[in-house]
Amino acid sequence: QGNMAFAGKYEFENDENYDDFVKKIGLPSDKIEMGRNCKIVTEVVQNGNDFTWTQHFPGGRTTTNSFTIDKEADLETMGGKKFKATVKMEDGKIVADFPNYRHTAEICGGKLVEISSTSGVVYKRTSKRIA
């Protein structure tokens, strides 16, 4: 708790099971194409338990989720749907239950590792620290 391990900027490095996962959660095919091997830059600002999590997509689109650990927040899914969730911190991982998947994020060896899982499909995205 209270460590600033997440703060920084991370650039997409690789992922696993992208197609299976996005089809399972019902992303439209244009969004699937847009996100495939997309050099997303994730910027995390952390102030104690308060986070601002911004994803910068090529072409200038950004998605920002701001939340406080253990407090309900308004968040947005990969597909742009708004929802409410309480983000938790479990064993150094950020954990959020999205409407149709569970998302975790942790720092492993200086990389940001995000895992989303739904009905047996596990999508893993690894990003390297660039700032």
Architecture overview:
The chain has helices at 18-24, 29-35; strands at 8-16, 41-47, 50-56, 62-68, 72-76, 82-86, 88-90, 93-97, 102-108, 111-118, 121-129. It has one domain: Beta Barrel (Lipocalin), CATH 2.40.128. It is mainly beta and 131 residues long. It contains two helices and eleven strands. 11% of the residues lie in helices and 55% in strands. The two termini are 22 Å apart. It comes from Eurystomus gularis. Residues 8-25 form the Cytosolic fatty-acid binding proteins domain.
Q: Can you describe this structure in just a few lines?
A:
It is built from 2 helices and 11 strands.
Low-confidence stretches: none
What name goes with the CATH superfamily? Calycin beta-barrel core domain
Structure annotation, total helices: 2
Q: The CATH topology, please?
A: Lipocalin
Main-sheet strand order equals: 4-3-2-1-11-10-9-8-7
Quaternary organisation of the protein chains: single chain
CATH class: Mainly Beta
Structural class: mainly beta
Subcellular location: Cytoplasm
GO molecular function, one term: lipid binding
Family: Belongs to the calycin superfamily. Fatty-acid binding protein (FABP) family.
Domain Cytosolic fatty-acid binding proteins: 8-25
